[in-house]
């Protein structure tokens, strides 16, 4: 492989006409520069310079290589500048994904802060549920995903990934106002075993919160309605189509329903994370993680 330092010397010999001047530009002695040029000739198996007692000139092979060296070294210099720009948040791209309630609640404000403070970094955002975002993160399609899990229920495959806890929120039960129990206080999910349920489209895996929570309470839910989002779930509950599990961030007040705290199963929460690749040291990821924490504090 060609040594960029030796190519730079050859380019400078072509530009200045002497090894001594090229050595001065490189910050070394003429003797050291001459040795490096001899090594370059040996690497290529071709004479690059015609030397005499008082002068040096490039051979045709040397001239051709010097021309290519100029382009190669310009590319190397550009790559170094690009790396320094990314490290200093003066360039590069940050690709982010988040699920809808997090995006609306605090991710968009965090992205706004990032864009204001680091305008030279290109931001790209995709709305993805956690089950979609994790494989994309592992594949390198995105750099940071705001994901969630339902504790103490099933966990996703996190091999090769790091998670920073952002927020832990209780799950609540949204109930049509007319069907709400007369007594106030936390409820036992098993008391709603006979109810119709509104649940997410996902019926298996670590995102199937309704199925897992109800099974933990000792029954199989009768799911009559499946929806894509919590706002739609709440609309169906308010219209009397069933009850639904919702996290506190999504539990917006609405006419026609009430949100009940859950006593059993115990510890039923949604944990939100900033999830990244374990090997990623991108400083933009680190800064956005901090802005996510700041935005959450302002939102909760």
From TrEMBL:
One Pfam family named in its UniProt record = HTH_1
Q: Does the keyword Transcription apply?
A: yes
Q: Cross-referenced SUPFAM superfamilies, in alphabetical order? A: Periplasmic binding protein-like II, Winged helix' DNA-binding domain
Domain HTH lysR-type residue range list? 2-59
What are the entry keywords? DNA-binding, Transcription, Transcription regulation
Which residue ranges does UniProt annotate as crossing the membrane?
Answer: none
Which PANTHER family does this chain map to? LYSR SUBSTRATE-BINDING (PTHR30346:SF29), TRANSCRIPTIONAL DUAL REGULATOR HCAR-RELATED (PTHR30346)
* Family membership: Belongs to the LysR transcriptional regulatory family.
Task: Please give the name of this protein.
Answer: LysR family transcriptional regulator
Organism, as annotated:
Actinoplanes flavus
